[in-house]
Amino acid sequence: MVLAEFIEDKPKSDFSDPIYHELAILNGEINRLDSEQLDDALKAFNLTCTGCFGVRQKRLKSYVRDKKQEIAGVNKRSPGRRPLDYLLFIDFEATCMEVNPAGFLHEIIEFPIVLFDCADRKPLNVFHQYVRPKINPVLSDFCMQLTGITQSQVDQADNFVTVFEKAHEWMEKQGLFEPGVHFAVVTDGPWDIARFLVQQCMIDHICVPYWASRWINIRKTFTNYYKLKYYPKLPDIAAMLEALGMKFEGRPHSGMDDAKNCAKIAETLLEDYCQPEFNEFLDKYGYSWLLEPKQKSEVVSSADHAKPAIKCVKWRTPQKKMQNAINLQMKAEENAVQEQGSANVEQDLTAKLQECSIGNSPEKKPLQSSTSLDN
Fold first, then answer.
1. Does the annotation mark 242 as catalytic?
2. Is residue 336 one of the residues assigned to a domain?
3. Residue 9 falls inside a structural domain
């Protein structure tokens, strides 16, 4: 095969010319292959032939690029880019109704984490806890049917603050906060962090931990890497799996099953020579003021990579801006009690959330919709 001979048999001395010019020629050759020829080329390099045409084409191009760079002795990673040691797949489930009323606050009721080793390309461990909501402690029939979570499971669960603390302790036991360890949270879309975690931290008056200041939206990573066309919105888990020639395993909208299936997608991305990078940032959605006070500056300066990851100190006193928001909520509650005899704190929280930019995000559904469907 011409392509195989060109890559495998050329000696290193033949790669003295700029490598990107050679890669452009090879990519053009790959672009001219039909489906059958593409599979023949993949088999010649012992690569899998599963997935749609675009995925298989990208797989071959990435292999060719990697092989050429290896032979030419070119650094495969751009300067300043640090490889990830671990990925943390998080997929929250939250309270919802079939038609969410105005001002409805979604409380986290399932907290799953799948720890994934990037070097070995496999899951290592899981954390899984249900959470007892406090604003709407009784789940709607729609919520229970959608998520598979029962009323008894949340009734017997700890509150969010306790579960969040357990999650931090679990992360510490996994060695994620050790100096030099580099990990990233991965979610299916922006909502798990920029909506559900942010709302929950505001409800419980706690800061968002430093590790949630930026994360990987796997929908963006998948679409940008394979260059597949999706319109008008990015693909969900089922669509990504279908493009990769796989099927969803488990129950859709189960937080743990969603997280495990996202890990399957990431495993294929890594096998196809993708290097996942952060593509979502909390300050983009207007919530940087919720971050831990002392950790925030270290996140901003993390580009130097000289500072080790530092464990999130639990339950820090909120920043001044957050405290001001809480004081406003308390004042509004007192006024509402005097004038109407009822508290209005949840509506104030919703008003604050709607002021932030996530409400204008093209990927995000309206706040009034059944947002658990986004999971």
1. no
2. no
3. yes
